[in-house]
Amino acid sequence: MTATAAGPAVDGVILPDWAAGRPGRPGLESLLGHLERAIEAARVLGIPAEDAERVRDDAAGRLGYPADVYVLALVGGTGVGKSSLLNALAGVPVSRASVRRPTTDRPVAWVPGEAREDLRGLLEWLAVDEVHEHSMANRAGVAVLDLPDMDSLATEHRERVDAILPRVDAVAWVTDPEKYHDAALHDEFLGAWLPRLDTQAIVVNKSDRLEPSAVDQVRRDIERDLVRAALGPLGGRVPVLVASAAGGVAGTREVNDWLDGGLESKRIVRARLSSAIVSAIDQLARAAEVDPRAPARPILEPTARRAAIDAATEDALRAIDLAALERQAVAATRARARARGSGPVGLLTSAVYRLSGREARVADPGAFLTRWRERGPLGPAVESLRQPLIASVRSAAPAVRPALAAAVEPGPLGAGLGAAIDRAVARHDRTVPTSRLWPVIGALQTLATASTALAVAWIVVWILARPPVDSVQVPLLGSVPAPGLLLVASVLAGYLCARLLGLHAGWLGRRWSARLRRAVADAIGQQVRDHALEPLDRLEAARRALWVAARSANMDARRL
Questions:
Q1: Which of 42, 161, 269, 510 falls between 20 and 30 A from 115, CA-CA?
Q2: 266 and 318 share one domain
Q3: Domain around 163
Q4: Backbone phi, then psi, for 222, in 5-degree steps?
Q5: How many whole angstroms separate alpha carbon 479 and alpha carbon 466?
Q6: Do 331 and 227 belong to one domain?
Q7: How confident is the model at residue 426 (pLDDT cuts 50, 70, 90)?
Q8: How would residue 549 be classed by pLDDT, with cut points 50, 70 and 90?
Q9: Where do the H-state alpha helices sit in 427-533?
Q10: Number of domains in the chain
Q11: Distance of CA 26 to the CA centre of its chain
């Protein structure tokens, strides 16, 4: 045998050149990639993926051995004559046949002598100890295994068949006129394995026991059984061969013709691995009720999703209390205005306001937002998300239902919604607005305060010492001493400055609070849309990935 050149690597497996894609066509590396992605998606969805993982591992193992010889297994029930059929094909005794049944308790291999060394690793991988060589030129491309009886009372025989079948490249399902309707063959083996193998045949042995007119009837019965087993087009691809091991070479003509019918080993191995991989992916897709032949459908329809998110956003905004947020924003703006534009008395008042903790309670919108969890529960918002999802859980595939039910539990949904609100709160602009007008008003307020102090001092001196002072004629009031007039004017000026500062700060604060409210509402809405349904979105992404893997694998398999 010639050495096989190395091709590309997939997940650490070096593919032989015959398994790699041809120009413009995918190869087994593409199918293995689809299988790996399907397995990852199945894990997220909670679907058991052990069988698919075994297919992946077996495919990787098979790719490590030469494909110049393919492995054909003879599989059948007790007493159907598998060993006799192998001996007839070989022309010499290879596998022990006896009236004592079962006879074959361990796999027996019949291999080309020149390929014995090259096949050593493959046979060890298949756990085959008894090996017989031959030098038949027309059988140089096939190694035949006689497997233990699949319906033996000895459970270890069935276990060996189950362990070896996933690793062989082709199967001849051997039966006889008495057992061709056997449920063990049709229900347990054909239904499970026909989709995984591209090269296989059903051999009706002991045909010498049938009348010539009955041979065709048995053949038609088996063909109908294949169709009845819901195998669809697979059944039509499986030839039904008639043989009589007792007749030697003449009695196995149809089987020999099938073996001589241009069965090329690399194509058989590639087709077998392709079928096994696609079947494993399809099995995962069926468990998730994903149909790769139909358009992908989400777990939660877009309309229902939007309605749930909108309702949850409204409930979340009510919990945050945006009206109180606006009041906090206006109060914070006014507090800053007092600190910058209210003169000495205002600075003192501002310091007392701040040091007493009142400012932190009523004029700190950032802290107010951060403490949103103290004001209102998220229960209504969580329920707004859960209600449409509960129906999705009931209609979900049984294998996916536990993971989906866990995703719509109040705990995960509440955590996701709370984290979304926290992210939105953290992004809001905490910069309280200011104005260049405030220092000017502050300077005027300081001047008014100084004038007031001067007027008070002047009045005190005037009362105590009675120095002469000027008077000013004021309409309706008559003559008013200058100190009194200065006091009134100073107080009025201070009041007007305070009013101007308050009005301007309130106007600026309301503008800021409106922007802040819109920003927080938009941010929360965006975060809820993007992140509140993260537990569901992880399942949705996995389900979509499984759909893509199944669809792509089926398309690539047809193009191999």
A1: 161
A2: no
A3: 9-16+26-287
A4: -65, -40
A5: 17
A6: no
A7: confident
A8: very high
A9: 437-465, 482-527
A10: 2
A11: 24
